[in-house]
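User: what does the whole thing look like in 3D?
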Amino acid sequence: MSFIATPKRLRGLGLLGINQRNADFIMRYNPRKLYPLVDNKLRTKQLALVQGIAVPELYGVVEAQYQTKTIIEILGQHQDFVIKPAHGSGGNGILVITGCMGDYFQKANGELLSLNNIRHHISNILSGMYSLSGVADQAIIEYRVKFDPVFEEISYRGVPDIRVIVFRGVPVTAMVRLPTRQSDGKANLHQGAMGMGVDLRTGVSCGGVFRNQACVIHPDTGKAITGIAIPHWNDILQLATRCADTVKLGYLGVDIVVDRYLGPLMLELNARPGLSVQLANQRGLLDNLQAIEALKFIPEDVNARVALSQQLSSQHPNAGDVENPASVETP
Amino acid sequence: MRNLSVTLWAALLIILGLSICLYKSFTLGLPLSPKQNTEVWTIQAALNFQGLGGPAIVDFHLPSTTPGFIKLDENFISKGFGLSTEEKNDQRKAQWVVRRARGQQTLYYRLSVASSPQQGMWDSRPEFPQPPTHTEPYNSAIKAIIGDVRNESADVFTYTRELLQQLNAPVANDNIELIRSRAHNAEQWVEEIINILKGARIPARVLWGLTLSDAANDARLLPMLQVHNGDQWLTFDPKTSHPGTPANFLTWYVGSEPLFDVEGGRKAELSFSVTRTYRELIDVARQRARQMNSIFVDFSLLALPVQSQNVYRLLLMVPLGALIVVFMRTYVGIQTFGTFMPILIALAFRETQLLWGIALFTLIVSVGLMIRFWLERLMLLLVPRLTAILIIVVLLMLLISLITNKFGAERTLSVALFPMVILAMTIERMSITWEENGARTAMLYGLGSLVVASLGYLAMTNESLIYLMFVFPELLLVALGISLWMGRYTGYRLSELRRFRDVRTDISR
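Assistant: Here's the predicted 3D structure for the full assembly of 840 residues, as structure tokens:
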């Protein structure tokens, strides 16, 4: 492996660069006035509820500092919950509480927090510490997803989620983001989470990427991450497609979790989805994006679009299907 | 489509900016590079005379057209005298008048010039002279010389050169010896030559000028020969026969009249003193700007008051820093804290120099970070916490200044000019990045900010660039064009070439 790749090689692989993503896709297909719909997770959630899209149940919203005193009432009987900023980005500022122990709350990583710690966290959120432009924010308290057992062995504390990129209402590619010890339970690749590529046709995983290195086992649990069938795969793709219809953004990242009781739930939407999905799948996005861009007619029906995406995926098969596992590096 | 119009706009802006810049450089003579200093000659003419007690009128020839030099400054010091100047027929004269002049009177005229290749020519057109009549044996000697020279010349230029060569030849015939015997000094020698040229019906005149040399206190005007070839005046050195004037020769006036004339005074004496100084080119350019009547110069920054000029000198460099940020982000893919924070850091480096700046910045940010981590445990609200960090930063700066002052290092006192709000924000952002994305990312961003800031500093303090941007602010159009053009770059970043280097299979096959 060389130190860097040549631009020619990357172009041959159809890899989308960040400049091109911004200039040719985000600017062209995502009207700025729609950004607030996805940048504010509270609005996204409310919009999704109206459209009948499954989301984690909302327990309450903290909008002002004085309300931090009353969070006990908001929490009510809930023993576990998630607190996150409405305008957060990159998974920052998300606090996952897995249970109560007397006066203390247990974080996903086992750390114990007092009620004061939680209030401080909420007031940090409210003062805009995690929001993109530092403006005052709201804190959302919601249902903590109990993820499907299929992910049990390949995630390290925290909730794995499925990122589907939808372009013009057609799913283009997907990956599962697995929390690791390094990512501190977060599911963002740049924070050290692992990306697991998924075949769009079958929902079966095909290897992944950790710290920009291709690999086939989870760094913390040591379990193989190839050949795992994601449950409710078709529902996931449909959910992603309907999300794109709801917010009308042309180039959208949909984050979905699979709850063991409730099935696929939409967590959040992203108007500027990252490019790591290309690494997780070991394939470039550009061919599929350009194929969809060239389409004159895109079917209305959600099922038809899912079928279309899977058909496009067969034309440009996943690298994972044809790879030579011997060349795969393990961390 | 969009790419095309962006490219067109970018090209238009770049071409427009460069054209104005080149026009100003070539037509108006504004230099493109700052030779830090340029020679400026200051010539002072002091005219002394004894007043007779009655009214006095002093006429004095002033430099008008000065090929090879530009007049930067001139002033007249003449206590109690009324002064008027008049300009006509390639001549410019000052007239000092006083009602009552008694005792020693001194009039000063001071002129500063800088060399400038583009300075104008004389535009007067003389009549063809009538051949003068001479007494014998001069008449036939001159006729013979005129005849000899005519055979060996083609036009006014070659005629004059040939004449001068024959007159100055070491071995001369009787005719020439006769002419030489009539001229007892340089002025008479030129007058003789003019007489001969008149005989050939070539308009000619004397040109008086000064050879500029450093610290000359008794400089004298030297006569040169000028002939008109129908288009323009050509100058020759009557002693050496060379066309043109000697090096550093400042033309004072043309014509056979005396340099000055004093009416109502006696014992009039004139002395020239010449000194050479070095001035910043930008000063010279500023003076030059006032004298040129071009719209580009009228609207030049050089016409602004000096204080505003200094502000713009700095302000005009900020776009260059921004271009570097754009390049580092879009093409290289370096991550920094905040988009333009590196520029602000770079501006702060101007006060401390680069190495000190980096050292102080790193020191304050790392100590600040440590204290910030401690503050984290106090669970303060965001804005009060930022204020606390700001106060700590000021305290740190104070401490550094006091300590280094004790050890006599003056340089570090300039730490006070560091923008403390920027330092505080850097500390806050760095600590958040540290907590959320790990120490490695935080260090990487911090390092990226410093690298971009250093590059920005190097560009923004480059003397040549500062000069260029200041004298040719239209280069901003070029910068705008470049930023438009870079704005549509959709290729890979250098960092992506590394990030995606291990993607394995060529799926397009």
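In plain terms: The longest strand of chain A covers residues 170-178. Chain A touches chain B through 52 residues (CB under 8 Å).
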